[in-house]
Amino acid sequence: MTCVWFTMGLSNTEDAIRLLREHPDTSRYRIVASHANGLAARRLPADLILEEPIRKKDPAAYADWVIGQALREGVDLVVAQGQALALAGEEARFRAEGITLLVPASRDILDLLDDKMAFVRDLASAGVPTHAALPFRTLEEFDAALGEIRQDPRGRHGLCAKPVSGIYAAGFRRLREDDHALARILGQCPDGDELTGDGLFDIDLGAYRDALARSPQDREMMLMSYLPGEERSVDFTARDGRLVAAVARVKRGSFQDLETEGPAIDMARVLAARYRLNGQCNLQTRNCDGAAVPLEINPRMSGAMALSCLAGPNLPALAVLGALGHEPVSVPALAGGKAWLRQVPTRLD
After folding, report:
1. Which of helix, strand or coil describes residue 42?
2. Residue 109 has what pLDDT?
3. pLDDT tens profile 293-314
4. Using an 8 Å Cβ cutoff, are 312 and 334 in contact?
5. pLDDT-based confidence at 141, cuts 50/70/90?
6. CA distance 81 to 182
7. CA 267 → CA 160, 186, 287, distances in Å?
8. 1 vs 198 pLDDT, higher one
9. Mean pLDDT (whole number) for 132-150
10. Is the dihedral of CA 138, 140, 145, 146 positive or negative?
11. What is the SS3 assignment for 192?
């Protein structure tokens, strides 16, 4: 019996396991899952649960532990999640033991995707549309970047800032220059309505500068031009840089529309090839002046990946089957190749 192990990941590992069991070609696979948090691990609907050691500072020891456990449990495929960087580049060691290792990218690419400033620079070097972006740490560097981006035509829609490295939009703020700072503190738009969407992340430019001036932090940040168009989250599966299947989610109010083609998916195809991505990944884009501008690539499945699978493609199963060499994989045909839309709740409860 084929055995697949999902190493420590996010809470949606539960969704990936459920989807594997729904696909006819993977429904009988034995599933192993692991997590460093024993309570979190016990929630996963796997056949076997392993508790991971905490070895973030010793990648070699972590790889040794994974190989040892995989041999003991008869694992055929290891899907590297939370500590993918520690396992990247170890494919030959796993292969020598008869184990397939699925990591989303090489170590160099994982480092590049984690550094959003480096990612923007790489996109620009490849001729891909980007937002204007400059790094800063201090108030002086922030003000210098502010003056430069204000002179860039791409800065005409406003400004925003975020850490160079991070997840969950932690630290992202849209910088505003108006007289409505108190209204935003009170959770209101200038017209008195409740804040939603990007408004939740608005901050007065003066308040941001003041916080930066008072802070002893030495974290690299980036100042960017704001992109005013719709944001899309593209969940996709790739194999050796080839896009296998992709679905874009567009939040519209309390619903998300699912798209199976369009500029954001075309961008996912280009970037999957550029970075030779593998398995499940996620691309965030935002529209500006008719172009899908990449914001970031997450080399892992997104938290709402299961919503995208409602469009037809079983993304986890496609990733696993591709890694095990079961190709060509069958992806459902959708609406004669045209864009296919379906409104789904923002959350699955």
Report:
1. helix
2. 97
3. 999 999 999 989 999 998 889 9
4. yes
5. very high
6. 42
7. 23, 38, 12
8. 1
9. 95
10. positive
11. coil
Q: Are residues 87 and 61 in contact, defined by beta-carbon separation less than 8 angstroms?
A: no
Distance from chain centroid for Cα 47: 27
Q: How many CB atoms lie within 10 A of CB 231?
A: 16
**61 pLDDT more than 80:** yes
Q: State the virtual CA torsion across 234, 28, 85, 235 in degrees, nearest 10.
A: 0
At what angle are helices 315-323 and 13-22 packed, to 10 degrees?
A: 80
The overall average pLDDT reported for the chain is 86
Three-state SS at 273 = helix
Q: 191 with 178: CB under 8 angstroms? A: no
Please choose, from the candidates 118, 101, 100, 98, the residue with its C-alpha nearest in 3D space to the C-alpha of residue 110: 118
What lies within 8 Å, CB to CB, of 225 at 6+ separation is 131, 132, 133, 149, 152, 154, 155, 156, 157, 158, 159, 160
Q: Is 256 helix (H, G, I), strand (E, B) or coil?
A: strand
Which amino acid is located at 311 in the chain? Answer: A
| Bridge partner residues of 248 (DSSP) | 234, 259
Count of other CB atoms within 10 angstroms of residue 293: 23
**Are 275 and 113 within 8 A, CB to CB?**
yes
Of 228, 309, 267, 334, give the one whose Cα is nearest residue 16. 309
pLDDT tens figures, 247-293: 999 987 777 788 888 999 999 999 999 999 999 999 999 988 888 99
**Tally of residues, the chain:** 349
Alpha helix ranges (H) inside the chain: 13-22, 38-42, 59-73, 84-87, 91-96, 107-114, 116-125, 139-150, 181-185, 205-214, 263-274, 305-308, 315-323
299: tokens are: 């080399």
Sequence-distant (6+) residues with CB within 8 A of 11 are: 40, 303
Tell me: the pLDDT tens digits for 207-232?
Answer: 899 999 998 878 899 999 999 889 99
Spatial CB neighbours of 111, under 8 Å, sequence gap ≥ 6: 85, 118
Going by the DSSP 8-state scheme, the letter that residue 101 receives in this structure is: E
